């Protein structure tokens, strides 16, 4: 496994920002807050320097009510304005993912208060989700934003919860077409691990230049490289499982085959994560129940 990673490392010098480990390392390090500030300004405020400072928080969200499962986010921060931003990178489109995004945002809002606190103390929450698949096929927008609105007149009810999605497959610009800070960060996320050097157009942004330096494979430890290799392997295995299910579905019925492929992908992902993550987080990542994952662990 380690030699597989070394062979890949010799080809391209930068890690894949879309893996869990790499995303947290690049955007969730307290010593590199400038990276996250620039990224959030690009994705939430169209490149304007709206965010001047933030505080990184523990991305683990404990459940406020017994029986409610825990949530695990990639990065979580509080802005100097009091707003909470939760950021998640999702590579695979697992069952229930849309509901999970909403659940995590609502929980980030509700857990701000304790018994007896005034509701006016609540600060807004923004859930920023970057996906490596298309979530909204009816729209060509790369970045889309959702808030609570009146159904017919579309007037705002509240800005306390805002959902922002960036769908990487819809971003098709090449490096010469990059104009805005948003363009440059999207290109970084999508293409960094395929680049042999930092493009001039991206190196002009200090925070993106810094992100490339953090993403240099040569600076990682052996354990970090093996973690990245494992994550890349389970992503490829799970995608192949979906494709296999779809191919079988051509003979057995397209709809049934897709369902089988998704199921195989969930199980493949869960098995690859059994030694690295707690049962609750595997459930979050795959959509399988905790009981199903415990059965997989017992069978190993």
Could you give the topology of this structure?
Layout: H1 2-11, H2 20-27, H3 33-45, E1 54-57, E2 60-61, E3 71-72, E4 75-79, E5 84-90, H4 97-110, E6 125-131, E7 143-149, E8 156-167, H5 181-191, H6 200-203, H7 206-214, H8 222-252, H9 254-273, H10 279-286, H11 290-299
Parallel strand pairs: 5-6, 6-8
Antiparallel strand pairs: 1-4, 2-3, 4-5, 7-8
Helix pairs in contact: 1-8, 3-5, 3-7, 8-9, 9-10
What's the gist of this structure?
Helices cover 46% and strands 15% of the residues. The chain is of the alpha/beta class and 300 residues long.
What keywords describe this structure?
alpha/beta, 15% strand, 300 residues, six-stranded mixed sheet, two-stranded antiparallel ribbon, 2 domains, 11 helices, disordered N terminus, 46% helix
Task: Please provide a written account of the structure.
By secondary structure, the protein is α/β, with parallel strands linked by helices. The chain has 2 domains: 14-219; 222-299, no CATH class. It has 11 helices and 8 strands. It has helices at residues 2-11, 20-27, 33-45, 97-110, 181-191, 200-203, 206-214, 222-252, 254-273, 279-286, 290-299, and strands at residues 54-57, 60-61, 71-72, 75-79, 84-90, 125-131, 143-149, 156-167. The strands form 2 sheets. Strands 1-4-5-6-8-7 form a 6-stranded mixed beta sheet, with helices on both faces. α3 crosses α7 (206-214).
